[in-house]
Design a protein that fits this description.
single chain, mainly beta, Immunoglobulin-like, 3 domains, 8-stranded mixed sheet, 6-stranded mixed sheet, 5 helices, 37 strands
Length: 537
């Protein structure tokens, strides 16, 4: 079933020209039913997103093509053909694995009936390739995005269309993108293993990546009684037009509800992305299992940190190692979600996935977690170089022309022609992120650059969040201080709350680095795509 533009508008209300959340609840979703029809956790097998092969390559660049289109797949045990709007028709989209310092050109073709804008979250791209919210590719158009891949990290691509990001991502427009540094990885000797191959959408020998280096795309969904994706089946979350959030009652990993993953008695490296619209998670494992944290949003930490729990908010990425050699064959270890304030809980949202220890290692496990991962600049040195401090208040305010309170930054809403800050190129600034919006939490994302977390209400950062990051969990009534250097590019970029409902209504602002004030959407505009005579990539 293809969702038409008219059908999509049933999920939205029009206010001031923007696409908003529904004013009336659609068909009752599983979350409203205490006897959820989504099925029992840990019954479906774990699956990995396939690796996207390049269309062609030359001496410096790999060229990729992705078509945003409808598809069907199984999310929940009792429904095998749920419709998605996905990159190449799947959710999550295909995994791009790229080598550090080798350029990518990714052609994004819009074969849907909704506008879209693609943001490669975590990539320091030029402003015209960063997914500026108003840089829209209309249906039947395409854009070639150029990415330098100048650091090794787990990042992701997702839709960023102005006022429609939550809708588009919930329908399926999100995927993982891994930049790896082969020389560094070989030196560190972290779990990797041989590439898995098998039948898939790109042929009989579809690549699924290293066996022991595992992507985990975490996402919660609501489904209506037909098993189709529901934008928001719980009218209480709308709260008379407050447009607060979108919480699903089904937790998925790589597009599978509560999967069951067989593992060997050895170490595995996991790369976790929270691709949820609104939900934050506090994750822990049963059987006393621990996470050895090795990387944050922007790459390796300075040294590993072993923790029993960690918080991951929308758009954050954490990489960790789990050593299953500590457990006997037949052991079942569950990854569980502890409830956080201001997250809507359902019967099974404390369940995430299960690891089942099925065998001894097929080959000896010689991997290790070294005591040093990479050298990072000490925080006191960065602080001594700060040139300016800015305060950014994330709250709710009445703004001119709107009868209800909006999500705001410093009392202002998104305006692509109005910049909140103008830091100099290579300038080092401290940003004080202040949550004065009552009981809500906000995951704050800044495009272009990475920051280090200085403190949280005057207290040091949690052990797991120390390192370079581009998303910061800003809890209820918290002030979080971060520091970063603005570059490597001049131009206009965005920062916003990554609760995508808040972003759409309208907790997003622009900032301009240096003196380049050109609107990014006018530099390299999307072009019409002729499916009968495709332009050469």
């Amino acid at each position: 079933m293809k969702i038409s533009r008219r059908d999509l508008m049933k999920y939205a209300a029009i206010a001031g020209g923007s696409v908003l959340l529904p004013v009336a609840a659609p068909q009752a979703a599983f979350g409203a039913d205490p006897n959820s029809r989504a099925g029992s956790p840990y019954t479906l097998p774990f699956r990995r997103p396939p690796v996207l092969p390049p269309v062609r390559s030359d001496g410096s660049t790999d060229y990729y093509q992705i078509i945003a289109q409808t598809g069907t797949q199984q999310f929940i045990p009792r429904k095998a053909n749920t419709t998605v709007y996905g990159y190449d028709g799947m959710f999550p989209g295909p995994l791009i694995r790229q080598r550090k310092d080798r350029q990518s050109v990714v052609r994004m073709i819009n074969n849907l009936d909704i506008p879209m804008s693609t943001h490669l979250h975590g990539m320091a791209a030029l402003p015209e390739f960063d997914g500026w919210a108003n840089d829209i590719s209309q249906p039947g158009y395409y854009k070639d995005y150029v990415y330098p891949n100048n650091r090794a990290a787990t990042i992701w691509y997702h839709d960023h269309a102005v006022h429609q990001t939550a809708t588009n991502v919930n329908l399926g427009l999100a995927g993982m993108y891994i930049v790896y540094d082969e020389a560094v990885d070989n030196t560190l000797n972290l779990p990797k293993g041989p590439d898995l191959m098998g039948p898939g959408p790109y042929g009989p020998n579809t690549n699924y990546g290293p066996a022991y280096d595992v992507p985990l795309v975490l996402h919660d969904k609501l489904f209506d009684r037909r098993g189709e994706v529901d934008f928001d089946g719980d009218p209480t979350s709308l709260d008379d037009g407050d447009f607060k959030d979108m919480f699903g009652d089904v937790i998925t990993i790589n597009g599978v509800a509560w999967p069951r993953m067989p593992v060997e008695r050895r170490k595995y490296r996991f790369r976790m992305l929270n691709a949820s619209i609104s939900r934050s998670y506090e994750l822990q494992m049963t059987r006393g299992a621990r996470f050895t944290m090795i990387a944050t949003d922007a790459g390796y930490r300075s040294s590993p940190a072993t923790v029993r729990r960690f918080i991951i908010s929308p758009a954050e990425r954490y990489e960790f190692v789990i050593d299953f050699s500590e457990f006997p064959i037949g052991e079942e270890i569950k990854l569980r979600n502890r409830s956080l304030p201001n997250n809507e809980d359902y019967n099974k949202t404390d369940d995430v996935m299960m690891f089942e220890v099925v065998s001894d290692p097929t080959t000896p496990d010689t991997s290790e977690v070294p005591s040093t991962l990479q050298l990072l600049p000490p925080l006191p040195v960065l602080l001594s170089q700060a040139q300016r401090t800015r305060e950014l208040r994330f709250g709710r305010d009445f703004v001119p022309g709107n009868p209800v309170e909006q999500w705001t930054i410093n009392g202002r809403v998104w305006d692509q022609n109005d910049m909140e800050a103008n830091p100099p190129l290579e300038g080092i600034e401290i940003w004080n992120l202040v949550n004065n919006s009552g009981g809500w939490h906000h995951p704050i994302h800044v495009h272009l650059l990475d920051f280090m977390l200085i403190d949280r209400n005057g207290r040091p950062a949690e052990a797991y969040e120390q390192g370079w990051k581009d998303v910061f969990y800003l809890g209820e009534n918290e002030t979080v201080r971060i520091i970063g250097k603005f570059g490597p590019h001049a131009g206009r970029f965005m920062f916003h709350c990554h609760n995508l409902v808040h972003e759409d209504h309208d907790m997003m602002r622009g900032f301009q680095v240096g003196n380049v004030s050109t609107n990014p959407s006018s530099v390299v505009p999307p072009q019409p795509y002729d499916f009968n005579n495709p332009p050469v990539l």
